[in-house]
Amino acid sequence: MKMIYVIDPINEDREGVKQYLELSGYEVHVFEDLHAVQVAISRQVPDLMLLEVQFPDGDGFSYIKKLKQTHSFPVIFVTSRVAESDRILGFELGADDYVCKPFSFKELVLRVHALFRRIDVSVSSYRGGSTWVLAGSVLQFDEVSHLFTLDGSQIPLTAAEWRIMSYLVSNSGILITRSQILEHCFDYSFESYDRIVDTHVKNMRAKMGPMGPQWIETVRGYGYRFAGKSTSSLPGKGSEGQE
């Protein structure tokens, strides 16, 4: 059973979400402030967090920015902050989805289902870790163990960034449009959300350092392409990528 933390200062909202999620088979714990959920996370990490932005004891955006430094479980903002700039900021901070109030409880449950389905499909389709090379640089990617290293240094990725990187790596050398990334990794197909893809790719490149833009190429006007070469396809390297 998946465990979900719901954090919202408004009792009606968090209890309504709790009721619908429990009816769908999830284990749900609710919290009214950021301090309480932080104590809970120190004891047990959830499979998913649903989080408001505005709290008497702090700001949800600032909280997630700090949380993502040590945890990679998915987060959905469920909030009354509805401006486009807020939605973009939420995704920049590593959110996997952003739901604006007022919302349909049924739609929220469907979004939660979709998020877990993407994660489960990603794991079930796993075929083993892979090693890639580019201009003397070496990248290792193992989705199940959440190991992503570049030249020996481990790179932390959010849940959304993992899905994007996995999709790009599995389609190495192929142009992937922003729309394809949205539909495959986020279940979105609206042009207005293209900026979300660009934001995630920008963050991924920054984490990868100077080689980031070389590993993930921009195809201007269309999308992105993973440029690495699999070591399993190089002459004399037939088994190296399978170690």
Descriptive overview:
The structure is a single chain. With 243 residues, this protein is α/β, with parallel strands linked by helices. It has 9 helices and 15 strands. Helix 1 links the parallel strand 1 and strand 2. Helix 1 packs across helix 5. The C terminus is likely disordered. InterPro entries: CheY-like_superfamily, OmpR/PhoB-type_DNA-bd, Sig_transdc_resp-reg_C-effctor, Sig_transdc_resp-reg_receiver, WalR-like, WH-like_DNA-bd_sf. Keywords: DNA-binding, Phosphoprotein, Transcription, Transcription regulation, Two-component regulatory system. It holds the Pfam family Trans_reg_C.
CATH topology of the largest domain: Rossmann fold
β content, as a range?
15-25%
Helix content: 40-55%
CATH class of the largest domain: Alpha Beta
Q: How does the helix and strand content classify structurally?
A: alpha/beta
Q: How many whole angstroms does the radius of gyration measure? A: 19 Å
- Largest sheet properties: 5 strands, parallel
Strand and helix order: EHEHEEEHEHEHEEEEHEHHHEEE
* Principal-axes shape call: elongated
Per CATH, the architecture of the largest domain is 3-Layer(aba) Sandwich
Average of per-residue pLDDT values? 86
Number of domains: 2
Give me the oligomer status.
single chain
CATH superfamily of the largest domain: Response regulator
Low-confidence stretches: 236-243
List the helices and strands and how they pair.
Layout: E1 3-7, H1 11-23, E2 27-31, H2 34-43, E3 48-51, E4 54-55, E5 58-59, H3 60-67, E6 75-79, H4 84-92, E7 97-100, H5 105-124, E8 130-134, E9 137-142, E10 147-150, E11 153-154, H6 159-170, E12 176-177, H7 178-186, H8 194-208, H9 212-215, E13 216-219, E14 223-226, E15 229-230
